[in-house]
TrEMBL record:
GO terms for cellular component: ribosome. Keywords: Ribonucleoprotein, Ribosomal protein. This is 39s ribosomal protein mitochondrial.
Length: 110
């Protein structure tokens, strides 16, 4: 229960390449959790039914939810927010401090 509350209260930053085509996959979410200091195996991650493709500037800062299964028993929704990243410093978007405090639009309005 404590793990579920912890995960529900956070917004996970999902950093994606600004130049190379991608589709969000469980391993992207796993890596984002790892960067946040949380270990989540791929088989515990359920993505939205509709795929998310990029790079797409219209997705920048928008949210989607993934479902995490904890100990094969409990399911919790975690908010994820897309951030585009470039290896070229001149092409990087400005850093936004405390992005999780800002309001955001969902990628899939429901």
């Amino acid at each position: 229960m404590q793990t579920a509350r912890f995960l529900e209260s956070h917004v996970l930053s999902v950093v994606m390449n600004k130049e190379t085509e991608w589709t969000i996959e469980p391993w992207h979410i796993r890596v984002s959790f790892r960067k946040a200091g949380i270990h989540v195996p791929d088989h515990c991650i359920s993505l939205p039914v509709k795929p998310i493709y990029g790079p797409d500037a219209n997705l920048e800062g928008k949210e989607f939810c993934v479902t995490i299964t904890i100990n094969n028993k409990e399911k919790v929704n975690v908010r994820c927010r897309i951030h585009h990243w470039s290896t070229n410093p001149a092409d990087r978007l400005p850093h936004i401090d405390y992005h999780w405090l800002l309001e955001s639009e969902p990628i899939f309005p429901e």
